[in-house]
Write a structure and sequence with these properties.
- The protein is of the alpha/beta class.
- Helix 2 crosses helix 3 and helix 4 packs parallel to helix 5.
- The strands form two sheets. Strands 3-2-4-5-1-6 form a six-stranded mixed sheet, with helices on both faces. The chain has a two-stranded antiparallel sheet with strand order 7-8.
- The N terminus is likely disordered.
- It contains six helices and eight strands.
- Helices cover 35% and strands 22% of the residues.
């Protein structure tokens, strides 16, 4: 692993996670150069924090990142997993990896509803490396983030020179 994420400290995953939690939308589109390293960082974060963090993939369904062996029953199919997320009344961050187009009309509707979820409790649905056509379809409903630090560096004036 020689990518930027692999050489990034585990704190990088925590920074991305904080940006996900701070997103104004219930739906986040996350672009990543090294998905597996990022998921690994989220797994460590979930174990240390005890927070409810889940990963859905087409081949494994919805499972806990905190406990690798814990699967959510009847959430193999995307539609069932999205309904589970929508009905949950608890804090949760749900990562969706491996989404393929076309989505059913019901799945697309559920994603739009999750984007507009009530603010009474914190729930984030995060599409990792979603197909470009899907991100275009969701448009302004989703908050778009990159896994690299996209925050502009604040310049400081020190001894008459600008430093980053």
């Amino acid at each position: 692993m020689t990518s930027a994420m692999a050489s990034a400290p585990p704190q990088a995953g925590a920074d991305v996670f904080d940006r996900i939690l701070a997103a104004p939308s219930g739906l986040v589109v996350l672009d990543s150069k090294d998905v597996h390293t990022l998921i690994g960082q989220f797994r460590v974060l979930a174990r240390h924090s005890g927070q409810a963090v889940y990963l859905w993939q087409p081949d494994t369904g919805l499972g806990s990142l905190r406990d690798a062996h814990v699967r959510v029953p009847d959430c193999q199919r995307l539609g069932n997993a999205l309904r589970y997320m929508q009905q949950s009344m608890h804090f949760g961050v749900y990562f969706l990896l491996g989404l393929e187009l076309p989505l059913s009309a019901m799945d697309a509707t559920l994603l739009r509803q999750l984007a507009r979820a009530p603010k009474d409790y914190l729930r984030r649905v995060v599409l990792i490396d979603a197909p470009p056509a899907l991100t275009e379809h969701l448009g302004e409903l989703a908050t778009h983030l990159g896994s690299e630090d996209s925050q502009p560096r604040r310049l400081r004036l020190r001894d008459g020179r600008w430093l980053s």
